[in-house]
Amino acid sequence: MDRPQKFSQLRSAMRKLPGPIVSGKVTTVGGLGLVASGLGESAKIGDRACVAGRIPAEVVATSPEGVRLLPFGTWDGIGRGDKVDLRAGAADIFPGPEWVGRVVDAFGDPLDGIELPDGPCAYPLRSAPPDAFDRRVMGEKLETGIRSIDLFTPICRGQRLGIFAGSGVGKSTLMAMLARQTNADVIVMGLVGERGREVQDFITRDLGPEGMARSAVVVATSDQPPLVRRQAAYTATAIAEYYRDQGKQVLLMIDSVTRFATAQREIGLAAGEPPATRGYTPTVFTELPRLLERSGPGSANSKSGDITALYTVLVDGDNMSEPIADTVRGILDGHIVLDRKIAESGRFPAIDIGRSVSRALPDCHIQLEQAIMNAARRALARHSDIEDLARIGAYRHGTDRDTDAAIRFAKLAYGFLSQGKRDPHTSEEAFATMYGLLAEAGVDVDLPQQVPQPA
User: Fold this and answer.
1) Which of the residues 117, 398, 403, 449 has an alpha carbon 20 to 30 A from that of 198?
2) How far apart are CA 334 and CA 296, in angstroms?
3) What is the C-alpha to C-alpha distance for residues 336 and 312, in angstroms, rounded to an integer?
Protein backbone atom coordinates (compact mmCIF):
# COMPACT_ATOMS: atom_id res chain seq x y z
CA MET A 1 0.00 0.00 0.00
CA ASP A 2 1.53 3.37 -1.03
CA ARG A 3 1.89 6.37 1.29
CA PRO A 4 -0.95 8.51 -0.20
CA GLN A 5 -3.40 5.64 0.25
CA LYS A 6 -2.25 5.08 3.85
CA PHE A 7 -2.61 8.79 4.54
CA SER A 8 -6.12 8.80 3.08
CA GLN A 9 -7.14 5.86 5.26
CA LEU A 10 -5.65 7.49 8.37
CA ARG A 11 -7.42 10.77 7.69
CA SER A 12 -10.70 8.92 7.08
CA ALA A 13 -10.35 7.14 10.42
CA MET A 14 -9.39 10.33 12.28
CA ARG A 15 -12.37 12.31 11.06
CA LYS A 16 -14.67 9.61 12.40
CA LEU A 17 -13.26 9.95 15.91
CA PRO A 18 -15.68 11.73 18.27
CA GLY A 19 -14.91 15.35 19.12
CA PRO A 20 -16.01 17.13 22.31
CA ILE A 21 -19.13 15.39 23.57
CA VAL A 22 -21.94 16.66 25.83
CA SER A 23 -24.20 14.00 27.31
CA GLY A 24 -27.86 14.07 28.26
CA LYS A 25 -30.71 11.62 28.49
CA VAL A 26 -33.97 10.80 26.73
CA THR A 27 -37.08 12.28 28.34
CA THR A 28 -39.74 11.74 25.64
CA VAL A 29 -40.03 9.47 22.61
CA GLY A 30 -42.97 9.67 20.23
CA GLY A 31 -43.46 9.33 16.50
CA LEU A 32 -40.40 10.49 14.58
CA GLY A 33 -39.16 12.79 17.33
CA LEU A 34 -37.26 12.38 20.57
CA VAL A 35 -36.68 14.99 23.28
CA ALA A 36 -33.46 14.94 25.30
CA SER A 37 -32.62 16.91 28.43
CA GLY A 38 -29.30 17.76 30.06
CA LEU A 39 -27.66 19.17 26.96
CA GLY A 40 -27.95 22.77 28.18
CA GLU A 41 -27.19 25.42 25.60
CA SER A 42 -24.68 23.26 23.74
CA ALA A 43 -27.10 21.99 21.08
CA LYS A 44 -27.41 23.89 17.81
CA ILE A 45 -29.63 23.14 14.82
CA GLY A 46 -27.87 20.61 12.59
CA ASP A 47 -25.62 19.16 15.32
CA ARG A 48 -25.22 15.39 15.30
CA ALA A 49 -25.92 13.09 18.24
CA CYS A 50 -25.85 9.41 19.11
CA VAL A 51 -28.67 7.88 21.16
CA ALA A 52 -28.04 4.80 23.31
CA GLY A 53 -24.64 4.43 21.66
CA ARG A 54 -26.09 3.08 18.43
CA ILE A 55 -28.60 5.38 16.68
CA PRO A 56 -27.28 8.53 14.94
CA ALA A 57 -29.56 11.55 15.05
CA GLU A 58 -29.69 15.25 14.22
CA VAL A 59 -30.87 18.26 16.23
CA VAL A 60 -33.92 19.78 14.53
CA ALA A 61 -35.30 22.03 17.31
CA THR A 62 -34.38 23.36 20.74
CA SER A 63 -36.58 24.75 23.53
CA PRO A 64 -36.50 25.24 27.33
CA GLU A 65 -38.06 21.77 27.64
CA GLY A 66 -35.18 20.10 25.85
CA VAL A 67 -33.60 19.29 22.49
CA ARG A 68 -35.64 17.58 19.77
CA LEU A 69 -33.83 14.97 17.70
CA LEU A 70 -34.71 13.02 14.59
CA PRO A 71 -32.99 9.71 13.78
CA PHE A 72 -31.00 8.53 10.79
CA GLY A 73 -32.81 5.27 11.45
CA THR A 74 -35.66 4.36 13.81
CA TRP A 75 -36.22 4.73 17.54
CA ASP A 76 -36.91 1.00 17.98
CA GLY A 77 -35.70 -0.10 21.40
CA ILE A 78 -35.18 3.46 22.71
CA GLY A 79 -36.82 4.49 26.01
CA ARG A 80 -36.75 7.18 28.67
CA GLY A 81 -33.44 7.55 30.44
CA ASP A 82 -31.28 6.32 27.56
CA LYS A 83 -28.04 8.23 27.10
CA VAL A 84 -27.71 10.92 24.41
CA ASP A 85 -24.22 11.99 23.30
CA LEU A 86 -24.16 15.31 21.44
CA ARG A 87 -21.32 16.05 19.04
CA ALA A 88 -21.21 19.70 17.96
CA GLY A 89 -20.97 20.59 14.31
CA ALA A 90 -22.66 19.38 11.16
CA ALA A 91 -21.16 16.57 9.08
CA ASP A 92 -18.92 17.07 6.05
CA ILE A 93 -17.97 14.77 3.20
CA PHE A 94 -14.58 14.31 1.51
CA PRO A 95 -15.21 13.75 -2.22
CA GLY A 96 -12.29 12.90 -4.48
CA PRO A 97 -11.45 11.93 -8.06
CA GLU A 98 -12.03 8.23 -7.25
CA TRP A 99 -15.73 8.89 -6.60
CA VAL A 100 -16.46 8.86 -10.34
CA GLY A 101 -17.86 5.49 -11.31
CA ARG A 102 -19.01 4.72 -7.76
CA VAL A 103 -22.35 4.52 -5.94
CA VAL A 104 -22.51 5.96 -2.42
CA ASP A 105 -25.18 6.50 0.21
CA ALA A 106 -26.29 9.81 1.70
CA PHE A 107 -23.26 9.79 4.05
CA GLY A 108 -20.73 9.29 1.23
CA ASP A 109 -20.07 5.66 2.14
CA PRO A 110 -19.76 3.18 -0.76
CA LEU A 111 -22.71 0.85 -1.31
CA ASP A 112 -20.70 -1.83 -3.08
CA GLY A 113 -18.57 -2.66 -0.01
CA ILE A 114 -15.33 -1.65 -1.75
CA GLU A 115 -13.17 0.94 -0.01
CA LEU A 116 -13.56 4.51 -1.29
CA PRO A 117 -10.67 6.86 -0.42
CA ASP A 118 -11.35 10.33 0.92
CA GLY A 119 -10.57 13.40 -1.14
CA PRO A 120 -8.16 16.16 -0.16
CA CYS A 121 -10.55 18.49 1.67
CA ALA A 122 -13.92 18.63 3.40
CA TYR A 123 -17.06 19.88 1.69
CA PRO A 124 -20.00 20.93 3.88
CA LEU A 125 -23.32 19.33 3.09
CA ARG A 126 -25.21 22.59 3.48
CA SER A 127 -23.00 25.30 2.05
CA ALA A 128 -24.30 28.74 1.07
CA PRO A 129 -25.03 29.42 -2.62
CA PRO A 130 -22.35 31.42 -4.46
CA ASP A 131 -22.64 35.19 -4.43
CA ALA A 132 -24.87 36.31 -7.30
CA PHE A 133 -22.54 39.13 -8.43
CA ASP A 134 -19.51 36.81 -8.48
CA ARG A 135 -20.98 34.35 -10.97
CA ARG A 136 -20.34 34.05 -14.67
CA VAL A 137 -23.18 34.22 -17.16
CA MET A 138 -24.46 30.98 -18.67
CA GLY A 139 -22.04 29.42 -21.13
CA GLU A 140 -22.32 27.74 -24.51
CA LYS A 141 -25.00 25.26 -25.52
CA LEU A 142 -24.60 21.67 -24.40
CA GLU A 143 -25.17 18.84 -26.84
CA THR A 144 -27.62 16.38 -25.26
CA GLY A 145 -28.23 14.11 -28.24
CA ILE A 146 -31.99 14.40 -27.62
CA ARG A 147 -33.68 16.03 -30.60
CA SER A 148 -36.67 17.60 -28.87
CA ILE A 149 -34.42 19.19 -26.20
CA ASP A 150 -31.68 20.44 -28.53
CA LEU A 151 -34.30 21.92 -30.86
CA PHE A 152 -36.90 23.42 -28.52
CA THR A 153 -35.53 23.60 -24.95
CA PRO A 154 -31.75 23.87 -25.30
CA ILE A 155 -29.53 23.61 -22.23
CA CYS A 156 -26.56 25.91 -21.71
CA ARG A 157 -23.63 25.45 -19.34
CA GLY A 158 -24.62 26.59 -15.87
CA GLN A 159 -28.34 26.45 -16.59
CA ARG A 160 -30.82 24.84 -14.19
CA LEU A 161 -33.90 23.10 -15.59
CA GLY A 162 -36.77 21.19 -14.08
CA ILE A 163 -38.25 18.02 -15.56
CA PHE A 164 -41.92 18.01 -14.56
CA ALA A 165 -43.96 14.82 -14.87
CA GLY A 166 -46.25 12.39 -13.16
CA SER A 167 -45.14 8.89 -12.30
CA GLY A 168 -44.36 6.41 -15.05
CA VAL A 169 -43.94 8.74 -18.03
CA GLY A 170 -40.20 8.32 -18.61
CA LYS A 171 -38.33 10.68 -16.25
CA SER A 172 -35.68 8.13 -15.31
CA THR A 173 -35.15 7.06 -18.91
CA LEU A 174 -34.76 10.67 -20.00
CA MET A 175 -32.22 11.29 -17.22
CA ALA A 176 -30.23 8.22 -18.25
CA MET A 177 -30.15 9.43 -21.87
CA LEU A 178 -28.87 12.82 -20.70
CA ALA A 179 -26.22 11.16 -18.49
CA ARG A 180 -24.90 9.06 -21.37
CA GLN A 181 -25.05 11.65 -24.14
CA THR A 182 -24.56 15.17 -22.71
CA ASN A 183 -21.09 16.63 -23.31
CA ALA A 184 -20.17 17.21 -19.65
CA ASP A 185 -16.98 16.12 -17.87
CA VAL A 186 -18.64 14.57 -14.81
CA ILE A 187 -22.19 13.46 -14.07
CA VAL A 188 -23.43 13.58 -10.47
CA MET A 189 -26.77 11.87 -9.84
CA GLY A 190 -28.82 12.02 -6.66
CA LEU A 191 -31.54 9.37 -6.44
CA VAL A 192 -33.65 10.75 -3.59
CA GLY A 193 -36.41 8.51 -2.28
CA GLU A 194 -36.03 6.09 -5.20
CA ARG A 195 -37.69 2.69 -5.16
CA GLY A 196 -35.16 0.16 -3.93
CA ARG A 197 -36.02 -2.31 -6.69
CA GLU A 198 -35.33 0.26 -9.41
CA VAL A 199 -31.88 1.42 -8.27
CA GLN A 200 -30.02 -1.54 -9.79
CA ASP A 201 -32.21 -1.46 -12.90
CA PHE A 202 -31.44 2.21 -13.44
CA ILE A 203 -27.69 1.83 -12.91
CA THR A 204 -27.14 -1.34 -14.94
CA ARG A 205 -29.76 -1.02 -17.69
CA ASP A 206 -30.64 2.64 -18.18
CA LEU A 207 -27.35 4.29 -17.22
CA GLY A 208 -25.18 1.43 -18.48
CA PRO A 209 -21.38 1.10 -18.37
CA GLU A 210 -20.80 4.14 -20.59
CA GLY A 211 -22.91 6.39 -18.36
CA MET A 212 -21.58 4.96 -15.12
CA ALA A 213 -17.97 5.43 -16.24
CA ARG A 214 -18.25 9.19 -15.74
CA SER A 215 -20.92 9.34 -13.04
CA ALA A 216 -20.97 9.58 -9.26
CA VAL A 217 -24.30 8.30 -7.94
CA VAL A 218 -25.85 9.04 -4.52
CA VAL A 219 -28.72 6.79 -3.43
CA ALA A 220 -31.31 7.08 -0.66
CA THR A 221 -34.28 4.74 -1.10
CA SER A 222 -37.88 5.50 -0.20
CA ASP A 223 -37.86 3.31 2.94
CA GLN A 224 -35.09 5.34 4.59
CA PRO A 225 -35.80 8.05 7.18
CA PRO A 226 -36.53 11.61 6.03
CA LEU A 227 -33.17 12.91 7.29
CA VAL A 228 -31.37 10.42 5.04
CA ARG A 229 -33.50 11.25 2.01
CA ARG A 230 -32.94 14.97 2.49
CA GLN A 231 -29.22 14.50 3.03
CA ALA A 232 -28.87 12.58 -0.25
CA ALA A 233 -29.72 15.77 -2.15
CA TYR A 234 -27.21 17.76 -0.07
CA THR A 235 -24.51 15.12 -0.60
CA ALA A 236 -25.01 15.02 -4.38
CA THR A 237 -24.82 18.82 -4.54
CA ALA A 238 -21.65 18.90 -2.40
CA ILE A 239 -19.99 16.31 -4.70
CA ALA A 240 -20.93 18.45 -7.72
CA GLU A 241 -19.39 21.49 -6.01
CA TYR A 242 -16.13 19.60 -5.51
CA TYR A 243 -15.83 18.71 -9.20
CA ARG A 244 -16.84 22.25 -10.20
CA ASP A 245 -14.00 23.62 -8.05
CA GLN A 246 -11.62 21.27 -9.91
CA GLY A 247 -12.47 23.10 -13.13
CA LYS A 248 -14.83 20.38 -14.43
CA GLN A 249 -18.06 20.93 -16.33
CA VAL A 250 -20.55 19.10 -14.13
CA LEU A 251 -24.05 17.85 -14.93
CA LEU A 252 -25.98 17.47 -11.66
CA MET A 253 -29.25 15.52 -11.78
CA ILE A 254 -31.48 15.04 -8.74
CA ASP A 255 -34.48 12.71 -8.92
CA SER A 256 -36.57 13.99 -7.37
CA VAL A 257 -36.78 17.38 -5.73
CA THR A 258 -40.37 16.54 -4.78
CA ARG A 259 -39.19 13.71 -2.53
CA PHE A 260 -36.63 16.10 -1.04
CA ALA A 261 -39.49 18.49 -0.23
CA THR A 262 -41.58 15.65 1.20
CA ALA A 263 -38.69 14.64 3.47
CA GLN A 264 -38.30 18.25 4.63
CA ARG A 265 -42.04 18.40 5.35
CA GLU A 266 -41.79 15.30 7.55
CA ILE A 267 -38.82 16.83 9.37
CA GLY A 268 -40.60 20.14 9.84
CA LEU A 269 -43.76 18.54 11.20
CA ALA A 270 -41.73 16.43 13.63
CA ALA A 271 -39.90 19.59 14.76
CA GLY A 272 -43.22 21.26 15.58
CA GLU A 273 -43.70 23.48 12.53
CA PRO A 274 -47.29 24.26 11.52
CA PRO A 275 -48.47 22.85 8.17
CA ALA A 276 -48.96 25.62 5.62
CA THR A 277 -49.61 25.33 1.88
CA ARG A 278 -51.25 21.94 1.27
CA GLY A 279 -49.57 20.52 4.35
CA TYR A 280 -46.05 21.66 3.45
CA THR A 281 -44.25 23.40 6.30
CA PRO A 282 -42.65 26.86 5.88
CA THR A 283 -39.09 25.48 5.90
CA VAL A 284 -39.82 23.52 2.71
CA PHE A 285 -40.07 26.79 0.81
CA THR A 286 -36.87 28.16 2.38
CA GLU A 287 -34.83 24.97 1.86
CA LEU A 288 -35.78 24.60 -1.82
CA PRO A 289 -34.04 27.79 -3.03
CA ARG A 290 -31.07 27.13 -0.73
CA LEU A 291 -30.59 23.78 -2.46
CA LEU A 292 -31.35 24.82 -6.03
CA GLU A 293 -29.29 28.03 -5.97
CA ARG A 294 -26.10 26.11 -5.17
CA SER A 295 -25.92 24.93 -8.78
CA GLY A 296 -25.34 27.20 -11.75
CA PRO A 297 -22.40 29.03 -13.32
CA GLY A 298 -19.08 29.07 -11.49
CA SER A 299 -17.16 32.05 -10.17
CA ALA A 300 -16.07 34.66 -12.69
CA ASN A 301 -12.89 35.24 -10.69
CA SER A 302 -11.60 31.67 -10.66
CA LYS A 303 -10.88 28.73 -12.94
CA SER A 304 -13.81 26.75 -11.60
CA GLY A 305 -16.24 24.99 -13.89
CA ASP A 306 -20.03 25.19 -13.93
CA ILE A 307 -22.79 23.04 -12.49
CA THR A 308 -25.52 22.48 -15.06
CA ALA A 309 -28.44 21.04 -13.11
CA LEU A 310 -31.58 19.08 -13.91
CA TYR A 311 -34.15 18.50 -11.15
CA THR A 312 -37.11 16.21 -11.64
CA VAL A 313 -40.42 17.24 -10.11
CA LEU A 314 -42.97 14.50 -9.48
CA VAL A 315 -46.21 16.40 -9.91
CA ASP A 316 -49.21 15.23 -7.94
CA GLY A 317 -51.84 13.85 -10.29
CA ASP A 318 -50.12 15.55 -13.27
CA ASN A 319 -51.06 18.92 -11.69
CA MET A 320 -48.36 21.34 -12.80
CA SER A 321 -49.63 24.05 -10.43
CA GLU A 322 -49.22 22.15 -7.16
CA PRO A 323 -47.06 23.99 -4.57
CA ILE A 324 -43.70 22.30 -5.12
CA ALA A 325 -43.94 22.43 -8.91
CA ASP A 326 -44.97 26.09 -8.78
CA THR A 327 -42.13 27.03 -6.42
CA VAL A 328 -39.45 25.13 -8.34
CA ARG A 329 -40.60 26.52 -11.67
CA GLY A 330 -40.16 30.04 -10.32
CA ILE A 331 -36.58 29.34 -9.18
CA LEU A 332 -35.15 27.46 -12.15
CA ASP A 333 -34.11 28.66 -15.61
CA GLY A 334 -36.69 26.69 -17.52
CA HIS A 335 -38.75 23.53 -17.43
CA ILE A 336 -39.38 20.44 -19.52
CA VAL A 337 -42.87 18.96 -19.19
CA LEU A 338 -43.47 15.27 -19.81
CA ASP A 339 -47.07 14.52 -20.74
CA ARG A 340 -48.89 11.30 -19.92
CA LYS A 341 -51.03 11.40 -23.08
CA ILE A 342 -47.92 11.67 -25.24
CA ALA A 343 -46.38 8.71 -23.41
CA GLU A 344 -49.56 6.69 -23.86
CA SER A 345 -49.44 7.41 -27.58
CA GLY A 346 -46.01 5.74 -27.71
CA ARG A 347 -43.85 8.80 -28.40
CA PHE A 348 -40.76 9.00 -26.21
CA PRO A 349 -39.33 11.16 -24.80
CA ALA A 350 -42.87 12.30 -23.97
CA ILE A 351 -41.97 16.02 -24.01
CA ASP A 352 -44.82 18.50 -24.38
CA ILE A 353 -43.09 21.05 -26.58
CA GLY A 354 -45.76 23.72 -26.22
CA ARG A 355 -45.51 23.75 -22.41
CA SER A 356 -41.72 23.40 -22.15
CA VAL A 357 -39.58 26.52 -21.89
CA SER A 358 -35.84 27.23 -21.76
CA ARG A 359 -34.91 30.63 -20.36
CA ALA A 360 -31.57 30.35 -22.14
CA LEU A 361 -33.37 31.37 -25.33
CA PRO A 362 -32.95 33.23 -27.59
CA ASP A 363 -29.22 33.53 -26.80
CA CYS A 364 -28.66 29.76 -26.77
CA HIS A 365 -29.54 29.44 -30.50
CA ILE A 366 -27.93 31.20 -33.41
CA GLN A 367 -30.32 33.23 -35.61
CA LEU A 368 -30.87 30.47 -38.15
CA GLU A 369 -31.66 27.90 -35.45
CA GLN A 370 -34.02 30.37 -33.76
CA ALA A 371 -35.89 30.90 -37.02
CA ILE A 372 -36.32 27.14 -37.59
CA MET A 373 -37.44 26.60 -34.00
CA ASN A 374 -39.97 29.46 -34.14
CA ALA A 375 -41.50 28.16 -37.37
CA ALA A 376 -41.75 24.63 -35.95
CA ARG A 377 -43.29 25.87 -32.68
CA ARG A 378 -45.88 27.95 -34.52
CA ALA A 379 -46.86 25.03 -36.75
CA LEU A 380 -47.12 22.58 -33.83
CA ALA A 381 -49.17 25.09 -31.81
CA ARG A 382 -51.56 25.59 -34.74
CA HIS A 383 -51.89 21.81 -35.10
CA SER A 384 -52.62 21.48 -31.38
CA ASP A 385 -55.42 24.06 -31.68
CA ILE A 386 -57.09 22.26 -34.58
CA GLU A 387 -56.24 18.65 -33.65
CA ASP A 388 -59.55 17.77 -31.97
CA LEU A 389 -61.61 19.32 -34.77
CA ALA A 390 -59.60 17.47 -37.41
CA ARG A 391 -59.98 14.19 -35.53
CA ILE A 392 -63.80 14.36 -35.56
CA GLY A 393 -63.94 15.64 -39.16
CA ALA A 394 -65.07 19.17 -38.27
CA TYR A 395 -62.15 20.68 -40.18
CA ARG A 396 -62.13 20.29 -43.97
CA HIS A 397 -58.79 20.05 -45.76
CA GLY A 398 -58.19 23.09 -48.01
CA THR A 399 -60.01 25.55 -45.77
CA ASP A 400 -56.78 27.24 -44.63
CA ARG A 401 -53.34 26.87 -46.22
CA ASP A 402 -51.34 27.40 -43.01
CA THR A 403 -53.48 24.95 -41.06
CA ASP A 404 -53.10 22.31 -43.78
CA ALA A 405 -49.33 22.79 -43.67
CA ALA A 406 -49.32 22.54 -39.86
CA ILE A 407 -51.23 19.25 -39.96
CA ARG A 408 -48.80 17.78 -42.50
CA PHE A 409 -45.81 19.04 -40.53
CA ALA A 410 -47.04 17.67 -37.19
CA LYS A 411 -47.24 14.13 -38.58
CA LEU A 412 -43.69 14.39 -39.88
CA ALA A 413 -42.24 16.19 -36.84
CA TYR A 414 -43.68 13.91 -34.17
CA GLY A 415 -42.26 10.89 -35.95
CA PHE A 416 -38.85 12.54 -36.09
CA LEU A 417 -38.95 13.63 -32.43
CA SER A 418 -39.66 10.10 -31.25
CA GLN A 419 -36.31 8.71 -30.17
CA GLY A 420 -34.94 5.49 -28.72
CA LYS A 421 -32.89 5.27 -25.53
CA ARG A 422 -29.67 4.73 -27.45
CA ASP A 423 -30.24 6.84 -30.55
CA PRO A 424 -28.20 10.06 -30.14
CA HIS A 425 -28.48 12.83 -32.69
CA THR A 426 -26.36 15.97 -33.05
CA SER A 427 -28.15 19.32 -32.88
CA GLU A 428 -26.78 20.24 -36.32
CA GLU A 429 -28.40 17.14 -37.83
CA ALA A 430 -31.60 17.82 -35.89
CA PHE A 431 -31.96 21.38 -37.22
CA ALA A 432 -31.14 20.35 -40.79
CA THR A 433 -33.75 17.58 -40.68
CA MET A 434 -36.35 19.85 -39.06
CA TYR A 435 -35.81 22.48 -41.76
CA GLY A 436 -36.33 19.80 -44.41
CA LEU A 437 -39.58 18.69 -42.75
CA LEU A 438 -40.85 22.28 -42.62
CA ALA A 439 -40.11 22.68 -46.33
CA GLU A 440 -41.73 19.33 -47.19
CA ALA A 441 -44.90 20.29 -45.31
CA GLY A 442 -45.03 23.76 -46.87
CA VAL A 443 -44.48 25.72 -43.64
CA ASP A 444 -42.92 29.14 -44.14
CA VAL A 445 -39.66 29.88 -42.29
CA ASP A 446 -38.58 33.49 -41.76
CA LEU A 447 -34.89 32.99 -42.38
CA PRO A 448 -32.51 35.79 -41.31
CA GLN A 449 -30.87 37.81 -44.05
CA GLN A 450 -27.44 36.80 -45.43
CA VAL A 451 -27.49 33.41 -43.72
CA PRO A 452 -27.03 30.27 -45.85
CA GLN A 453 -29.93 27.86 -45.74
CA PRO A 454 -29.40 24.40 -44.15
CA ALA A 455 -28.38 21.65 -46.55
Assistant:
1) 117
2) 13
3) 9
